[in-house]
Design brief:
four-stranded antiparallel beta sheet, 4 strands, 24% strand, 42% helix, 5 helices, alpha+beta, globular, 98 residues, single chain
Length: 98
C-alpha cells in the first residue's frame, strides 16, 4: 500500500504480508517520512494504533498517516489517509483508558 498509494514512497511492502503470515494485512504508513510503521491482522487493530497516536500526541499528529490493505496476491489499496483516517479512527477505534 505504501509503495503505491502514498506519494514518494518507493519501498516494496510484499515482505510485510509474508511476515504477517496472513492472506490480508493492513499497513500503517507515515505519509511524511514515508515509513511503513507496522502491519496488522485487522483494520480495527491498525485504527487503534492511529487512535492511540492521536490521543498521545494530538489530532494533528494523526493526520500524518495512511492505512491500506495488501491481499494475498500483493495487490494493495488505500483505505484512508490524513483527516479522513483520523475521523475513521475516532469513530471505530476504542477510546484508550486513562
Amino acid at each position: 500500500m505504501c509503495a503505491t498509494s502514498v506519494p514518494g514512497y518507493e519501498q516494496s511492502t510484499t515482505a510485510s504480508r509474508l511476515e504477517a503470515d496472513s492472506e490480508i494485512v493492513f499497513e500503517l504508513c507515515n505519509t511524511r517520512s514515508r515509513n511503513l510503521l507496522g502491519t496488522y491482522a485487522s483494520e480495527d487493530a491498525a485504527l487503534s494504533v492511529v487512535r492511540q497516536l492521536a490521543d498521545d500526541h494530538g489530532r494533528a499528529h494523526g493526520v500524518r498517516f495512511a492505512i491500506g490493505l495488501e491481499d494475498a496476491e500483493g495487490e494493495s489499496r488505500l483505505i484512508a489517509t490524513g483527516e479522513e483516517l483520523d475521523l475513521l479512527a475516532e469513530r471505530r477505534a476504542p477510546v484508550s483508558p486513562q
